[in-house]
Design brief:
By secondary structure, the chain is of the alpha+beta class. The strands form three sheets. Strands 5, 6, 12, 13, 14, 15, 16, 17 and 20 form a nine-stranded mixed sheet that branches. Strands 1, 2, 8, 9, 10, 11, 18 and 19 form an eight-stranded mixed sheet that branches. The chain has a three-stranded antiparallel sheet with strand order 3-7-4. Its cofactor is FAD.
Length: 415
């Protein structure tokens, strides 16, 4: 073969079914779920996987709903993750630790309300599975510098000079998605003027697999159960929401001051506490894309919708996107359509738009309802919570929502 022929062949882009921009929790789950259905993909991520999974690099944890756990199980991740997640057996919801709390505890045959995982453990499981999957071509420490979407396919040029091709481009780049913005998607956005402080805690008493959602006027204060560490120390994840005006002062606190402020808001429910993970913080904003598809483009996860963490549904909503997109593509390809077909994308958008909007509307409403200060609003909230506590049907409805088992679920999330 001549040198010119070699040069010509190297210039031909490697084509797969999907190009997924973003190899985070949602993007990599999509690649693995697609691979299980025989759909090939390029996954492009500018991050270094070794840095993302380094010990102590990320102290965050995620609540994985029952539906999301079904998805992980159906794509072969259960054996990697099963022993790493802490079951959530109940959720205690209270207005500032005043009387009138709600206890959500499913019946014995209904299973748990979800599982808590360290983000690092989720990433390790996803990345290990991706390395073993021939249907996934994983390109790291690089990013897209050119995205072309044409009538017959998409083409992406990477910062390292490689050119990749596919039938469909999927943006899973997170809240600041350049692909979504380049496509001109209109967004509904607002700033809650809140900041979430996230860390891990060691605590004296066992959490008994209970998650606490304590509402204060400045924002919710969540304690989420984690497995005991190797030394047998009890642990929980903390998500503390504060007013943006107070955030700088809290960020400037040393660890002892920070722990003291946290302890005051816990009212001793878990005994003495200390930090078990680095402190992180991020601003809380709402955004929702008016549409989630365009010509040969689908937008998923935080690139399509971002919400307040009050109900822990952000990642779970992205995983519902994954299940729906894979189901739509699989059924279409079985009929001879290609992944980028406009009919398939229209079906995906119709399916996801209403569900994501409803979840986000409820989350936003709760944030505003519990953020109203004063004794009268607090009394009204606690009256309503007391009514929910006494009505089994209402409690079951809210528990199904928490488990992600409501609505038109994709096959992969049904169990």
């Amino acid at each position: 073969m001549s040198e010119s022929q070699n040069s010509l062949e190297s210039a031909v882009p490697e084509r797969r079914d999907l190009i997924i921009l973003g190899g985070g929790l949602v993007g990599m789950t999509l690649a693995l779920a697609a691979a299980r259905a025989g759909i090939t993909s390029h996954v492009i991520d500018r991050a270094d996987p070794a840095e993302l999974t380094a010990e102590g690099a990320d102290g965050r944890a995620s609540a994985i709903s029952t539906a999301s756990w079904n998805l992980f199980s159906n794509i072969g991740l259960a054996r990697r993750l099963d022993k790493l997640g802490c079951p959530i057996a109940s959720i205690a919801v209270t207005d500032g630790m005043k009387p009138g709390r709600i206890d959500f505890t499913p019946k014995q045959d209904e299973g748990t309300l979800g599982r808590m995982f360290a983000n690092r453990d989720l990433r390790l499981a996803l990345f290990e599975a991706a390395r073993e999957e021939p249907a996934i071509a994983w390109h790291v420490r690089t990013e897209a510098v050119r995205r072309d979407r044409g009538e017959h396919g998409v083409e992406v040029e990477l910062s390292d000079g490689r050119v990749l091709a596919a039938s469909l481009l999927v943006a899973a780049e997170g809240r600041q998605s350049p692909t979504r913005d380049e496509a001109g998607f209109k967004m509904a956005r607002w700033d809650y003027r809140h900041r979430a402080f996230v860390t891990g805690l060691f605590h004296e008493k066992s959490h008994d697999n209970t998650a606490w959602e304590i509402f204060y006027p400045a924002g919710p204060f969540a304690l989420l159960p984690l497995l005991d560490d190797a030394q047998g120390r009890h642990r929980s994840a903390l998500v503390w929401t504060v007013d943006e005006n107070d955030a700088a002062g809290i960020a400037a606190m040393n660890d002892a001051m920070f722990v003291n402020e946290v302890a005051q808001r816990m009212h001793g429910v878990l005994g003495a506490i200390s930090l078990s993970a680095p402190r992180m913080s991020y601003p809380l904003r709402f955004h929702h894309a008016g549409k989630v598809v365009d010509r040969r483009l689908a937008v998923i996860g935080d690139a399509a919708h971002g919400m307040h963490p009050i109900a822990g549904q952000g990642l779970n909503l992205g995983l519902r996107d994954v299940g729906a997109l894979v189901e739509v593509l699989t059924e279409g390809m079985r009929l001879g359509l290609e992944p980028g077909d406009a009919q398939l994308l229209a079906r995906y958008e119709k399916w996801r738009s209403l569900d994501s909007f409803m979840v986000m509307s409820v989350t936003d409403g709760l944030t505003r309802l519990f953020g109203i200060p004063g004794k009268l609003p607090s009394a009204a909230r606690r009256l309503g919570m007391g009514a929910v506590q006494r009505l089994p049907a209402l409690k079951s409805f809210f528990m199904d929502e928490a488990r992600g088992m409501s609505g038109a679920l994709p096959e992969l999330l049904r169990g």
